[in-house]
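User: I'm putting together a small comparison set for a docking exercise, and I want a reference complex before I start. The sequence is below, and the ligand is manganese (II) ion. Could you produce the 3D structure with the ligand included, as structure tokens?
Assistant: Of course. I'll restate your input first, then give the structure tokens for the complex.
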Amino acid sequence: MRSRGRPGRVRTERRRARCARGPPPIRGERPGAGGPGAPSGTRMGGRPTSVPPVARVWRPRRPRPARRLIGTRDRTPTHPPPASRPLTTTRLRNHRMDLLEYQGKQLFGRHGLAVSDGKPVTTVEDAVAAANEIGYPVVVKAQVLIGGRGKAGGVKLAANEDEAREHASNILGLDIKGHITRTVWIEHASDIDTEYYASILLDRSAKKPLLMFSIEGGVEIETVAEETPEKLIKHHIDPLVGLTREEAIKVATDGKAADDVIEGVADALVALYEVWIEEDASLAEINPLIVTPDRKVKALDAKVTLDGNAAFRHPDHAELGDSANADPIEVKAAEQGVTYVKLDGDIGILGNGAGLVMSTLDVVAQHGGTPANFLDAGGGSDAAKVKQAVELILANENVKAVLFNIFGGITRCDEVANGLIAAFEDLKPSVPFVVRLDGTNDVQGREILEQAALPNVYAAKTMDGAAEQVVALAKGA
Ligand code: GDP
Ligand code: MN
């Protein structure tokens, strides 16, 4: 049996890997613009859903038979195609994880890229203690997921204890473009002779990693790319071969790095590629990559984005990311293994299958509503899972009404109904719920809900009708 089982598992894993590869290339995605803070423009990565493919051509709604066999699926789309206007206004984050500078530097260090030792701290006292231990001069650096910290006063050199205290107290709590600084990184200050730039990102259109290098570092690289593009060397890496030292030397030479540091720069580039490929990063950027007066090459800053779809390969990445600034509901959802993304609106959404949830967001938006979240309850949602999901949705105080959109396949509508009843008994929500149950055991599900006669719960038969009703309820609330 074992010999039969294993290939099956391999196949499944391959399929999962294919599915996890995420969305198709985005037009207009600019190299260098994909880092933290850049608008993502992408929707959630593809994952298998239990939703049947929607017919390509929209046909007018067929009148439904009064009673259908349990479990039959009505494939008629319930709303017109996005012919005249773009459907969704709602954008979901891609599944990615942006690292703080010091976390990126720790990954760099593991792959042999030179960085300064330091310490992350969250209080002024700890900052002073760390500075005293490291030895002056030190640099005090705000750890926030946004660039341009230096210009915003988030990077300061301190020559002694008094200065370290002053800078730490100014920087802790500092608002940098909407990001509140909760952690500062203290490292021994480096002497700088020259500032270079290096990065590797995935060039989706070329289907290859793209290495970029410039001797114009320490400034915004977009400016270099626009004003002096000849100073930004771009080199595609063959992912099957990796970045060879010879290639790296050519890049450093073409980029006109100083003769005596060509080898040092090449070593740094090779190490950066090792970080990118082995840690499953989608972006690894060093700005500035410095040359010290004694001609050492060193990463003074780090901007790393990891591909969240590869997280299963890196249990050690679990504690990375900006947990101090993470949304508490998203954190809780992640712990429970639920795909939840907080959005700006006031209509809580639950559906089963990412595709169905996306369409639900679209239909709600089309009816003039704004979704408060994306929540995919997944296939086979049982009562306990539904209750958990309701708790997550209601944890967002902005929610004024909730739409449950369940298309029963593996998920049984009667189970969802029972979950909802259990959740209501416990949580006693004060906001109205619109529940659309369709598919496996939908008749039973609606009967269970009817018998329970929950206050403030409205059953709907179509997605369109449900969306219309929930928008009206949210506006009236
Ligand atoms: P960013 O502004 O968010 O990109 O933060 P960086 O870490 O890149 O720091 C901004 C600038 O501060 C750098 O370009 C350097 O010029 C300067 N800087 C940072 N660390 C040091 C250091 O150890 N020594 C010196 N002399 N300057 C530093
Ligand atoms: Mn920088």
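Residues 287, 301 surround manganese (II) ion (ligand 2) (CB under 6 Å). Residues 327-476 form a domain with the Rossmann fold fold (CATH 3.40.50.261).
User: Thanks, that's exactly what I needed.
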